[in-house]
Design goal:
This protein is 4% helix and 31% strand. It contains one helix and 13 strands; from the N terminus they run ββββββαβββββββ.
């Protein structure tokens, strides 16, 4: 006769949720011991610049949230909405408990209405830096981190279609797997897009400041944090 301890039978609460009466853990995918609501999702932030804009040396992303003024407005006193971000905290202050994210991948998406010339300008003359607690985690070229979403494009001798950074396929993202990073509550982090002064287009033997074309829509670039999100239970 086996002396192995039997697992306790689950108890069903009046609301229909099953739980372990000894450990009080809940048998429900969206609830974890603690308790939080954990989902697979993403946070996003949009950098939108007018046609003909002269690109600044540095753009600090995710450092404003819904309801605050857009730090890079198309129109004076623009306020951020869900069209541009789903953040309710700044990266410099970190998430509020119990909100957090285990970052499985980061991604960059260019709006399909952007002209290829403006996409190429941004890709060629920029680099990004992602830091957690001022420690560098990821850096380099935007094209190395496609968002895996959006609209692909092509061109012919007669017409031009949409273009983007990478393929509109979730499997086309660069995933970190077991080397992902945890952005916990109140953990300071940053994501900056940089255009160095000494690395712009060369005109007349000198570097010039990258400038968006005046004929397109300008720039509309979306930055994503993909991973497991913890949220309060409601």
């Amino acid at each position: 006769m086996s002396n192995a301890a039997k697992a306790p039978a689950l108890v069903t609460s009046p609301s229909g949720v099953q739980y372990n009466p000894q450990t009080m853990t809940v048998d429900m995918n969206s609830l974890q011991a603690g308790i939080v609501d954990r989902v697979s999702g993403f946070y996003y932030y949009t950098l939108e610049l007018a046609a003909g804009a002269v690109l600044q040396p540095t753009y600090s992303l995710f450092n404003a949230y819904i309801g605050q003024q857009d730090p890079y407005p198309l129109v004076a006193n623009d306020v951020l909405t869900e069209v541009k971000t789903n953040m309710y905290w700044t990266s410099s202050q970190g998430f509020s408990p119990p909100w957090d994210i285990v970052v499985d991948s980061i991604g960059v998406e260019c709006d399909p209405q952007m002209t290829p010339a403006d996409i190429n300008l941004i890709m060629r003359y920029s680099f990004f830096q992602f830091k957690i607690l001022q420690k560098m985690q990821w850096e380099g070229k935007l094209e190395a981190y496609p968002g895996g979403m959006g609209i692909s494009g092509a061109t012919s001798q007669n017409a031009q279609s949409q273009w983007n950074n990478g393929d509109p396929n979730p499997n086309a993202r660069k995933r970190f797997g077991r080397f992902g990073k945890y952005l916990g509550p109140q953990t300071m982090w940053s994501w900056d897009l940089n255009f160095p002064a000494n690395a712009g287009p060369v005109v007349g033997g000198v570097h010039t400041t990258p400038t968006l074309s005046s004929s397109g829509i300008g720039a509309c670039v979306r930055f994503y944090l993909f991973g497991l999100l913890d949220r309060p239970v409601t």
